[in-house]
Amino acid sequence: MADSKPVNCPGVSKIVRPVPEYAECPNCKGSIEFWSDEDMGKCYECDREYPKALQDASCLDWCPQADNCRVMIKENKSS
Ligand SMILES: [Zn+2]
Q1: Which residues pair with 24 in a beta bridge?
Q2: How far is the CA of 66 from the centre of ligand 1 (A)?
């Protein structure tokens, strides 16, 4: 079956299947790892934690269907 319909809103695919993103640590220039489903990132080198930049606001902050997605994400995580 060539059914390419997404199983969830494509906007939250990064949250449903978290991927890491990296930034430079302002403290030690090490690598901070930000997971796409978490609000905080942690530096590999000095263990400091940083809040994720606000530019990462997702469709969940905007979309009228966001509550449906939140329920789905929660179910996904608990399974
Ligand atoms: Zn650091």
Answers
A1: 31
A2: 34
How far, in Å, from the CA of 41 to the mean position of ligand 1? Answer: 11
Distance CA 59, CA 16 (A): 13
Report the separation in Å between the CA atom of 73 and the middle of ligand 1, taken as the mean of its atom positions: 30
- Compute and round to an integer the Cα radius of gyration of the chain: 15
Q: What is the pLDDT along the chain (79 residues), one digit of tens a residue?
A: 556 776 778 877 777 777 888 999 999 999 999 887 788 899 999 999 998 765 556 788 888 988 988 898 888 877 7
DSSP-based three-state secondary structure for 44: coil
DSSP summary character for residue 43: E
DSSP 53: P
66 vs 20, 24, 28, CA distance in Å?
22, 31, 37
